[in-house]
Amino acid sequence: MWNKKFALAVGAAAVSVLAGGAAQAQGRDLVVASSATYAPFAFENKDKQIVGFDIDIVNAIAKQQGMKLRIVNTPFSSIFASLNNGDVDFVISGVTINDKRKQSFDFSQPYFDARQLIAVPKDSAVASLKDLKDKKVSVVSGSTGDDVLSREVGKTSPNIRRFESTPLIISELAAGGVDAAIGDNGVIAYRVSQYPALKTVDDASFPKEHFGIVVRKGDKALQEKINAGLAAIRADGSYNVIYKKWFNQDYKPQ
């Protein structure tokens, strides 16, 4: 009998500790990973602050849901490992929702409509993905652009040049180290606009994509809070205000 009472007491104490820990976790800052090399979605301004469309969106969601955030600049190549390791609570970094990633992570509802876009020199004859078969092409390692090109020419093709960020793949193209670069439409268009000798090529065969906020597999509570916040900022017009700020037009679903 004494052992049973002792066990019950220990169990009650454990529940109390767990409940206290959960309450404490709710009050702490949530750590958010974002690769700040991805203008206009996330980048460092002149004061070394991380700003951009993604940052405004996640801050609006957090304000609506009463969450406190700490945003950490994390290389895209290690962003998923940081989430799995528990170093961060969730990720917003222009991450395309796809079936492969959904096997390992859970996503919010889409917060941005995207597609891939090709960047080439202005005198290039490249008109589609098919034209890149025998050309050197730069991509961000592990990105959707990497996946698209790997399916087209083979993952181990020596013509695929992988880098850690979009600025690097565009600067490699501008320097003549590759013949083309592939990446997400918003950021590729933004970067190419800074290089007068480059242009973009839109291949109609590229599928429509959607960016989502990434949480650890099974973290339904956080996923639901993010979705609720996203739905709220769409409903009250905040989403469109942010979209117009960064893309100079009203949001129109693709």
UniProtKB/TrEMBL annotation:
Residues of the Solute-binding protein family 3/N-terminal domain: 29-250
Top-rank lineage group of the source organism: Bacteria
Ranges where the Ionotropic glutamate receptor C-terminal domain occurs: 29-249
N-terminal signal peptide: 1-25
Keywords tagged on the record: Signal
Keyword Signal among record annotations: yes
InterPro entries membership: Iontro_rcpt_C, Solute-binding_3/MltF_N
Pfam families: SBP_bac_3
Protein name, as recorded: Basic amino acid ABC transporter substrate-binding protein
